[in-house]
Amino acid sequence: MPREPGAIAELQQDELERRRQRRGTDGLVRKALGDTLPRASEPVPELLKLFGDHRDEQLVSVLGTVISITRRQLRKEFAEELAERDPHFKKIAALELEVANLRGAVDVLRGAVPAPMPRFPSVRAWAADTVYHEGDVVAFSGATYQATKDTARAPGSRDWICLAVAGAGLTVRGTYDGNEEYKHLDIAMVNGSSFVALRDWPGPCPGDGWHLLASRGSRGSRGERGIIGLMGLRGERGLAAPTIQSWELDRARYTATPVMSDGFRGPPLELRGLFEQFLLETSDA
Questions:
Q1: What is the DSSP letter of 229?
Q2: Sheet holding 160-165: strands in order across?
Q3: FRET label pair with 92: which of 47, 73, 212, 240, CA 20 to 30 Å apart?
Q4: Architecture of the domain made up of 120-168
Q5: Given this model, what pLDDT does residue 24 score?
Q6: Are strands 171-175 and 160-165 parallel, antiparallel or unpaired?
Q7: Which residues of the chain, if any, have pLDDT below 50?
Q8: CA pseudo-torsion sign 94, 96, 97, 103
Q9: Looking at residue 204, what is its pLDDT?
Q10: What confidence score (pLDDT) does residue 13 get?
Q11: Could you tell me the pTM of the whole model?
């Protein structure tokens, strides 16, 4: 007996409703079964048919949902297991790295491999409001500084050590004067000690902007007086100087040689010029 049009329409409406409900889980079921399920317009495969009606589609939908939930639970358990074992894996990796480093150090000591080339720390431009750690190297005011400890202070303070200065030299400025302007590497004297400016406008000296170069030593204790005193021993009286006893005249050369009291003869005295001048003066008269 043929069905009435109203009953046929009702069955079609129920089928559409079941398909709409199945769309929410259809993607999960296909993913779980490797996309082997039929599409909405495709019939259920023969291997999955048990009832031969719409219940087969409902069974496939429920089966896909169960498989999807099971996979999610397994993934969650697997992720939790990995998260629990991750610290152990990290420790194992760290130990393996330490062992590798030790093996490399042993190979260097044995001479099996050459020693690695030393690497200088990377140099960055100093920036305000930045915390630098011990060993960091920065460039500041034309010089290179290395931090001696964790610090946020500017280079030039006691937290930094100057490694190199480009194209600069020390400038001696004499006794420190608070009214003068001092620049980087200027040297000033204070109470017998010398200080070098660590930066431009270093502030009062001594202070954080200055570095001590040389310090005046403390006054020593007074020494003992010598046995003889400041004056030495009086020496013996010397011999009398020789005197002229006589003259030896050489009339041919017009010279007179002195004969000293000790028997020696002194240098001869030239008289020719004197007699010639005398004759000239007397002949005019």
A1: -
A2: 123-125, 137-140, 143-147, 160-165
A3: 73
A4: Ribbon (2.10)
A5: 46
A6: unpaired
A7: 1-3, 24-25, 28-29, 32-34, 36-38, 40-41
A8: positive
A9: 92
A10: 61
A11: 0.26
Distance from C-alpha of 254 to C-alpha of 272, rounded to nearest angstrom: 5
Q: Find out whether 177 and 163 touch, Cβ atoms under 8 Å.
A: no
Give the model's pLDDT for residue 86: 80
Please tell me the total number of residues recorded for the chain in this structure.
285
Rg of the chain taking only CA atoms, in angstroms: 57
For residue 167, the model assigns a pLDDT of 61
- The DSSP element (H or E) to which 48 belongs, if any, is none
Terminal-to-terminal C-alpha distance of the chain: 196
| CA 38 to each of CA 45, 137, 214: distance values in angstroms, whole numbers, following the listed order | 7, 67, 93
Domain ranges of the chain: 5-93, 120-168, 169-216, 244-284
Q: What pLDDT, on a 0 to 100 scale, did the predictor assign at position 177?
A: 92
Rounded to the nearest 5°, which phi and psi values hold at 103?
-65, -40
